[in-house]
């Protein structure tokens, strides 16, 4: 970034501009000879160039004023030392996540809020686990936020067998974090139903997480009661919808969070979910130490050299090529 160390010196350019305007164009005293007009042109390139010589002098003075303002360029380099948090987000992608008590559905809102949460964590390693009746790692731990956000956006219902295996999702997240050397290891588990599949009990997975020093924040999304939800999968892979009575195992999610010194949250709307992620963001702060190193390079000597060059051109022109004979 180019700046001026002493910009007030530029105020001298104002009277300089006024002097140039008052004194230009300078006119030489000439003697008109009518008989010679047809043989000698009134103006030649030499006479015109000589009239422009004073401009070199004024330009040299102007450039010198700029040099006095000390143009310089600043570089700033930041060295960041972050005690980052390792976070695995375990998201439910069972068919019930397409329920339309959220706009347009639960999964779309969960993905949107999760992407915003990832954007606010530039120094943390974040991974992604998806689960329904089974679980898999969608994205391993990485500091590349764009990659994580892209994988979140690609989550779809129907990739796994239908069902909700909360224990499988949590156990897969624990497996992603078990080799982490970070002081803070966090799992955010989001689901909208009851555990009804999988061969690992949810509380067994919670015990594993707690023994490894991991905190689990459980988030229950959706409303209970009659909700327009997927009722049947069609041959083309899409779902037909019908009003269904939805239930939720609040107590299980509360116990999972309690066993790991985490916290349970309930989201009935998109605003609730955004507030939950904001609270988690505040609870799991990343300690950052930033050292800023500044370096400045001055360029005034270039302007001084240019000013001297312009004055030299004016002197050579006036006493050399465009020299006139005076009595």
Write the layout of secondary structure elements.
Blueprint (H helix, E strand, L loop, with lengths): L1 E3 L8 H11 L21 H24 L2 E13 L1 E8 L13 H14 L5 E7 L3 E8 L2 H9 L12 H12 L6 E8 L10 H10 L2 E8 L3 E9 L5 E8 L3 H10 L3 E5 L2 H14 L3 E12 L1 H22 L6
Parallel strand pairs: 3-4, 3-6, 6-7, 7-10
Antiparallel strand pairs: 1-2, 2-11, 4-5, 8-9
Helix pairs in contact: 2-9, 3-4, 3-8, 5-6, 6-7
Description:
The protein has a 6-stranded mixed beta sheet, sandwiched between helices. A 3-stranded antiparallel beta sheet has the order 1-2-11. A hairpin with a 5-residue loop joins β8 and β9. The chain contains 9 helices and 11 strands. By secondary structure, it is an alpha/beta fold. The chain folds into 2 domains: 89 residues, no CATH class; 201 residues, von Willebrand factor, type A domain (Rossmann fold, 3-Layer(aba) Sandwich).
Q: Going across the biggest sheet, name each strand in turn.
A: 5-4-3-6-7-10
Number of helices: 9
Query: What structural class do the secondary elements suggest?
Result: alpha/beta
Structural domain count = 2
Task: Give a short overview.
It is built from nine helices and eleven strands. With 327 residues, it is of the alpha/beta class. The protein has two domains: 2-29 and 40-75 and 297-321, no CATH class; 85-285, 3-Layer(aba) Sandwich (Rossmann fold), CATH 3.40.50.410.
What attributes characterize this protein structure?
single chain, 327 residues, alpha/beta, Rossmann fold, 2 domains, 6-stranded mixed β-sheet, 3-stranded antiparallel β-sheet, 11 strands, elongated
